Amino acid sequence: MKVLYGICSWGLGHATRSLPIIRKLIREGESLTIISHGYSLEFLRSELKKEDVNFFDVKDYPIPVSETKGELIAKSVVYWPKFMRRMEKGLGFVTKLCEKERFDVIVSDGRYDVYSRRIPSYFITHQVRILNPFKLKTMEFGSEIFNLFFLKRFKKFLVPDYEDDDLSGKLSHNLKLIKKHYLSYIGVLSDFRKRDTEKDIDYLISLSGPEPQRGILEKILMEQVKELDGKIVFTLGRPDKNVVKKEKGVEVYSIVGKEKREELMNRAKLIVSRSGYSTIMDLAVVKTKALMIPTPGQVEQEYLAEYHNRKGTFYSVKQEQLQLAEDTKKAQHTTGIKRECNVEKTVERVMDILYETG
After folding, report:
1. Do residues 278 and 192 lie in contact, with contact meaning Cβ atoms separated by under 8 Å?
2. pLDDT tens digits, residue range 318-342?
3. Whole-structure pTM over 0.85, yes or no?
4. Would you identify the CATH topology of the domain 2-190+342-357?
5. Which residues are paired to 54 by β-bridges?
6. Which of 90, 134, 185, 232 has the fewest CB neighbours in a 10 Å radius?
7. Residues of the chain with CATH 3.40.50.2000
8. Burial level of 335, CB count in 10 A (0-12/13-18/19+)?
């Protein structure tokens, strides 16, 4: 079976969560072509360097980050024309590639421009309803219309969550327009596994996401980390650097590979991180508590942080209000995600869906 796999490049989350499916396709001997861009593409090439995989660098649409509501309105005016132009360009490339390669099935994690009307195409998303900073129901309803428009181009949306006792809240549940038969709740996707190991790291501070906010948070945390006691590990999320150092009792890594990151997450008693959905799925698998700091202007992260704060699974705080010593104490009193999260079962569900049509 020839598979085309598109991966969104907004941070590394889409790439990391797709790896279990990609690795399974490779083990099954399927022919695989991957489309991505930027750090995500670099990361995937590094992770799969020993595998026979074709890669294409195709820029996807820009990430709409705004720090204020007024800024969001101003940016939206110019964002949508850019979005459509980038979509058209990406889709043009994909159409030509499909004509040449004759793929049997297409999987797209977060990229609306990777599909074909002639080939069974599946869209992986946890964000079936796109939220807005104004919390207006009409805009949320409009986002369902937007996704419904694209859903017609895909055979089905694959939602990496559960139908009940869920992780994504109203991002993919209690929908008004999109009916359940369009969706398959496949379960969590994470490239990590739970390890039976000693919890000897008191705090793992894990940075990720786009600049400038990644760098801003790094500065804040580097200043406040002095107030913490115990063993502290700091990963900066900087693929462009190659730094490992220890200063004032804090181990600092510019970037860590999959195995090292999995080891650190399992050893940590508490993780300080952004509230991206892929991070939440990783935490669900390794069963570690967390303090979440949503990226300012990323409405989805702000909602997920608030949602899990209300549920008591994780504690969250806004970046500008962060008091690391106090907030980490509060995070210790949360429950973490208790439900069983079996990634192998998720991958098997996905493979069953692909083999039905591939």
Report:
1. no
2. 999 999 999 999 999 999 999 999 9
3. yes
4. Rossmann fold (3.40.50)
5. 33
6. 134
7. 2-190+342-357, 203-331
8. exposed
CA angle 312, 315, 320 (to 5 degrees): 150
Handedness of CA 322, 326, 329, 330 (dihedral sign): negative
Interatomic CA distance for residues 290 and 332, integer angstroms: 8
CA distances from 156 to 36, 60, 81, 124, 175 (A): 21, 21, 26, 9, 15
Q: Angle of helix 38-47 relative to helix 13-27, nearest 10 degrees?
A: 30
β-pair type (232-235, 244-247): unpaired
**How far is residue 109's CA from residue 304's CA, in Å, rounded to a whole number?**
19
pLDDT digit string, tens, across residues 167-195: 999 999 988 878 888 899 999 999 999 99
CATH superfamily membership of 203-331? Glycogen Phosphorylase B; (3.40.50.2000)
Which of 350, 293, 358, 354 lies closest to 323 in space, CA to CA? Answer: 293
Residue type, 51: E
Respond yes or no on whether the N-terminal peptide bond of residue 81 is cis (omega within 30° of 0). Answer: no
Kindly report, residue by residue over 21-80, the tens digit of the pLDDT. Answer: 999 999 999 999 999 999 899 989 989 999 999 999 999 876 655 555 555 555 555 666
Q: Which amino acid is at 300?
A: E
Cα 95 to Cα 88: distance, rounded to the nearest angstrom: 10
Distance between CA atoms of 49 and 149, rounded to whole angstroms? 36
Q: Would you state the structure tokens that stand for residue 283, as one six-digit string?
A: 């935490």
Question: Do 163 and 185 meet the contact criterion of CB atoms below 8 Å apart?
Answer: yes
- Using CB atoms within 10 Å of the CB of residue 170, give its burial: 0 to 12 exposed, 13 to 18 middle, 19+ buried: middle
Q: In the numeric block, which tokens belong to residue 236?
A: 């900066």
Query: Residue 209 region, left (φ>0) first, then alpha (ψ -120 to 50), else beta?
Result: left
